[in-house]
Design a protein that fits this description.
Elements: H1 17-20, H2 27-49, H3 56-73, H4 76-80, H5 85-105, H6 108-115, H7 126-134, H8 137-142, H9 145-160, H10 164-169, H11 172-194, H12 205-228, H13 248-262, H14 265-296, H15 299-315
Helix pairs in contact: 2-3, 2-6, 3-5, 5-11, 5-13, 9-11, 9-12, 11-12, 12-13, 12-14
Length: 316
């Protein structure tokens, strides 16, 4: 039995962190990660060559996000994740909640818009097509909280508590599709909340916090449901290989604890990013107002002082 397509999962030795981090590349994710890093590097290099600056922090965030996907999918963690619910849950949580946050902080869309050359009048190149996609009705729908929050929740309950999960885990293509889905759902959920890139749905900062906390508790409830279950709830992990030395129910309880704990980690990361963005936005607004005051000689303040002087004159 070889669901993952890169290693026999039935005779794996008992899990240890060292064994889990051993190299075992999934070709699809290896190529995708290398391509993503190469394209991002090309964009940064293009900006640098023409004398533009690109924040180092964004590059670090993006690279770390892509490497986190590689860590989950190009090591033995992916093999163990085919037969151990707890390891699979680590994959799911990282790819759906940690990797998207880091990738979004890297602002890849902004980089693409700055690096891609305009196609010229009357023509449509990659930059123009990207702009069309950003302003499309499709993007307005998939980034709206009415869509993103239910999709974020359904990726847990409608997947794990129905036969769909077992069907997807039954083939390498299905497994890849599921992991890509986790990443895509995380990206569209967190993008309107804390993404640096421009998007069609960009509410105020308080509303973004409400969107964040509307989705996170359901992860905690999902984890508690797994921890409290008295029988295995997912057929795929009902009978782990004897070589692992694990019991299905205890492994499921561990998976629930991982899901519950991960509901807190992204919340803190996103909240810190939001507060930083809010502060930076206020600082930019204050600088704009200062520049406007310098240009007009602070006429509003002069008018207010004149008004106070007139009131004082009437009182006398």
């Amino acid at each position: 039995m070889d669901h993952s397509g890169h290693g026999t999962t039935m005779d794996l030795p008992p899990f240890t962190l060292g064994r889990g981090l051993a190299w075992s590349a999934d070709s699809f994710f290896l190529i995708a990660c290398l391509l993503g890093l190469a394209l991002y590097g090309w964009g940064v290099a293009r900006l640098v060559r023409r004398g533009d600056k690109w924040p180092v922090g964004r590059t670090v965030a993006f690279v770390t996000g892509v490497l986190s996907i590689g860590l989950m999918m190009c090591t033995k963690l992916n093999d163990y994740g085919m037969v151990m619910f707890s390891v699979h849950m680590v994959q799911h949580m990282v790819i759906s909640m940690v990797s998207p946050i880091l990738i979004l902080l890297g602002a890849p869309i902004t980089l693409a818009l700055r690096a891609l050359p305009p196609a010229g009048r009357g023509r449509k190149g990659p930059r123009e097509l990207l702009l069309m996609l950003l302003h499309s009705r499709y993007m307005r729908v998939v980034t709206h909280p009415v869509f993103t929050i239910p999709m974020f929740i359904a990726s847990l309950y409608a997947l794990y508590f129905t036969p769909l999960f077992d069907f997807l885990m039954g083939s390498r293509v299905g497994h890849i599709a599921m992991m890509v889905h986790f990443l895509a759902v995380g990206l569209v959920f967190f993008w309107p909340i804390m993404g640096v890139d421009p998007g069609p749905h960009r509410p105020g900062y308080l509303m973004r916090m409400l969107e964040l906390f509307a989705g996170m508790p359901f992860h905690a409830f999902f984890g508690i449901a797994l921890m409290m279950a008295s029988t295995p709830m997912v057929t795929t992990f009902e009978n782990p290989p004897a070589s692992l030395g694990v019991e299905a129910l205890s492994d499921q309880n561990a998976a629930g604890g991982i899901a519950w704990a991960f509901s807190e980690v992204p919340s803190v990361l996103v909240l810190l990013a939001l507060l930083f963005q809010w502060y930076a936005s206020d600082q930019r607004q204050a600088r704009r107002e200062d520049r406007a005051a310098d240009r007009d000689g602070d006429k509003e303040l002069e008018a207010y002082n004149a008004y106070l002087a007139s009131l004082n004159a009437r009182g006398n």
